[in-house]
Amino acid sequence: MNTEKLLGLYPNAQKKNAPSPDEHILSLIVEDYFLWIDKNSLSAQEENLLKALFQTTYSLENHPWFHYLFEEQAYVSEESCRIIQLHLEKRAEFLQKEWQETIAELFPEALDFFLYTETDGLIIERKHPNYLNTADLKGIFLSLDVDFDLTTQAFVGSFHTSGQNLTAMFDEERKIFLNKQTQIQVSDQTTSIQELALYYYTKELVTSSQLTNEYQEIIRGFKMEEIIIELWKNFGNISSAAKQLFMHRNTLQYRIEKFDEQTGFNLKKADDLLFCYLLLLHT
C-alpha cells in the first residue's frame, strides 16, 4: 500500500520528510516519506495492524544527529562528514547489542551511530585520512552479515562540508537509497551515490519520453543489451568486453559496426555508448 492510498484511508494523516518526535503520533515509513497519524484517531487494532505492515520510528534522546537530521534542531559541526545509511534484514535471533558494539569498533571516527527503526540506521562519520572507500565497506558488511546471520544493505553518502545544508543533502540521499531498495536492481548490497545517481536523476525524464521508448525497442530488437552493458563496464574497450561476453573480438567488432550501420548509434563513441547504457537502466 502506497502513501496516497493510506492518505485516502486516513485523510488527517500528514506526509512528512522526518519522523514525529511526539509520542502521541504514529510515525510510519511509507515509500520515501514518513506518514504521521494521530494515535487518538486509531483503534488499538488499527494501530497494531499499521505497525505490523510498516516500519515505525524511534525518537532518540541521546543522539544529537538524529535531532539535527530529522527534527531540524540545531547542531554545529565544523567537520566534513558523510552519512552511511543501513537497512537490515534479520534472521534468527539477532544479537543487536553485539552487532552495534562491532560497528562502533569498526568506525572509531563516527560522530554518531544509531538505529531509528527496527531495521534502519545511520553512521555519521567524520572525514579522516584512513576512511574506507565503498569497495572496502562492501567487504566489511559482507563479513558482518556472515558473523551475525543477517543481510545488510548499505548506502555510502558523499562527504559534505559543515557549511552545506546537510539536512537537505541527507534527505535527498535517503530518497535515493529508498529508491534503490524498491526499484533499482543491483547485485551489490553496498552501494554509493556515484553508482546510483545516473539511474535516479534520469528516471523520470527517460521513462516519460516516447522517443527514448522507441530507442529502447531498437536496442532490444538488435539484442544489444549485454554488449552495451559490458562495453560500458569496460570503458568502451572492445577486447575486454569481448572476453567478458565469451565472444571473439572480431565478432563483437562486427556486431558493433552492424548496429551503427542500422541505427546510427556508434558504440565506439563515448556519447553514444553512454546514451544507450542510460536507456537500458530504465528498461
TrEMBL record:
<dbReference type="InterPro" id="IPR051448">
    <property type="entry name" value="CdaR-like_regulators"/>
</dbReference>
<feature type="domain" description="PucR C-terminal helix-turn-helix">
    <location>
        <begin position="233"/>
        <end position="279"/>
    </location>
</feature>
<dbReference type="Pfam" id="PF13556">
    <property type="entry name" value="HTH_30"/>
</dbReference>
<dbReference type="InterPro" id="IPR025736">
    <property type="entry name" value="PucR_C-HTH_dom"/>
</dbReference>
<protein>
    <recommendedName>
        <fullName>PucR C-terminal helix-turn-helix domain-containing protein</fullName>
    </recommendedName>
</protein>
<dbReference type="InterPro" id="IPR009057">
    <property type="entry name" value="Homeodomain-like_sf"/>
</dbReference>
<dbReference type="InterPro" id="IPR042070">
    <property type="entry name" value="PucR_C-HTH_sf"/>
</dbReference>
